Amino acid sequence: MSAARAAAAPAPPTARGRIDKRQAILSAAIEVFARDGYERAGVEAIAAEAGVAKPTIYNHLGGKENLYRAAMAEAAARSKTKVLAAVDGFPTTGEDLRAGLRTVARSLVDCHISPQGWALSRLLYTEAARFPEVYDEVQTEGGRQINEALAGRLARLGNAGVLRVPDPVLAARHFMALITGELAARTAMGTRELPEEELAGIIADGVETFLAAFGT
Amino acid sequence: MSAARAAAAPAPPTARGRIDKRQAILSAAIEVFARDGYERAGVEAIAAEAGVAKPTIYNHLGGKENLYRAAMAEAAARSKTKVLAAVDGFPTTGEDLRAGLRTVARSLVDCHISPQGWALSRLLYTEAARFPEVYDEVQTEGGRQINEALAGRLARLGNAGVLRVPDPVLAARHFMALITGELAARTAMGTRELPEEELAGIIADGVETFLAAFGT
DNA sequence: GCCTTCTTGAACTCATGAGTTCAAATTAGC
DNA sequence: GCTAATTTGAACTCATGAGTTCAAGAAGGC
């Protein structure tokens, strides 16, 4: 019986009993939803991916809709942590500003183009009509916080006289737009690989335009 | 019989026989796919919307996948026409450049945020994994052409000395990024209305940053 | 060791939706 | 008008997937 399951699931022959099933289910759900989309994703497939029986999912999370909500909350939390860490690397002084901006931009882009990052964006957009609350939660709890953090760092640089940012929030939005604006189109919303050199070029170009607009 | 169909379909009591069924089917398909997504859209619903019987769809277009491809090609063609017309309004002289840029930006944004525009983007992204050829066709046939047209106009302004655009293609990309970058997030990929004043603000801000970066 | 609690597998039910079939009705071409 | 092609409605088939049920099995607490 265990052997049959192990053959169907990539997961190791899971220990039985109540361990960290819930976490395993959420991780598997994120992966399968990301790969197949909400509609095409099967609860059975998620169960297999998690190395768990189907009723266990219904015990823990009640149903597909609720499972989706919980999985998205988990994914959003993970993503937010990463992005805020990336913003933390923002330069605080004008010393080698161009290089500093490129480094942060690269970190931010890496968050965006990671499989997890794309999965989150794609599902948010795709299911925005069906799950508006999920969209709002991620957007307000996540997106706004990130923008605020970025704006704060830009304001510091403005204060130090190395940038001209009368409206730091706007500058933060345009920074993100210039850096990440083309990623969706270029990678087909994360379904294509982007050559390293192309990525570096996009970032360098974005930083350049940003500096042309907001530098002193 | 005709009365029963008219009750189910919003379409007028269609004349029978081989008229413009195909066009009606494609228009209905665009609408239903846009509203419900590929997976949730039902062929039966499309038939009802088109005021046509289900077998007629299979006669004309063979199946759901093919119907999707044809509908997307139609939608892309319509969209491209509109966008290229918008680019045509681009200023060619430096006279009142700011106002001219805002006007074009507004036209471009209007194409983007129209229900048809969002439908196209959303479906392209959502189904990029399942229909990569559709994505490529629209992206290369449409996106590239639009970017080229925009770059051409920017190059003229550069030549006239009112803009500093060593790389017109790059400038075109950044123009679009600054103008349309936030629209997806703000409108939840077109599922929310955006207040007119907010939209005007986004455009004005985008043009301002663009001029700061590329103006003389 | 024992009892409670959770997990499992397997076989269900039930709804939905793609695609087909076909005789009857309708239309277009002439 | 007459004929050939097309459209229609309605009733199919068939596959898929959500959610449930239940008896048997496996931890974990004591």
From TrEMBL, chains A, B:
Q: Name one GO biological process term.
A: negative regulation of DNA-templated transcription
**PANTHER family recorded:** HTH-TYPE TRANSCRIPTIONAL DUAL REGULATOR CECR, HTH-TYPE TRANSCRIPTIONAL REGULATOR RUTR
Keywords of the record: DNA-binding, Transcription, Transcription regulation
DNA-binding span(s): 42-61
| Cross-referenced SUPFAM superfamilies | Homeodomain-like (SSF46689), Tetracyclin repressor-like, C-terminal domain (SSF48498)
UniProt GO molecular function: DNA-binding transcription factor activity; transcription cis-regulatory region binding
Every HTH tetR-type domain range: 19-79
One Pfam family name is TetR_N
What superkingdom heads the lineage?
Bacteria
Q: What is this protein called?
A: TetR family transcriptional regulator
Coiled-coil ranges per UniProt: none
The cross-references to PROSITE patterns, in alphabetical order and at most eight, read: HTH_TETR_2
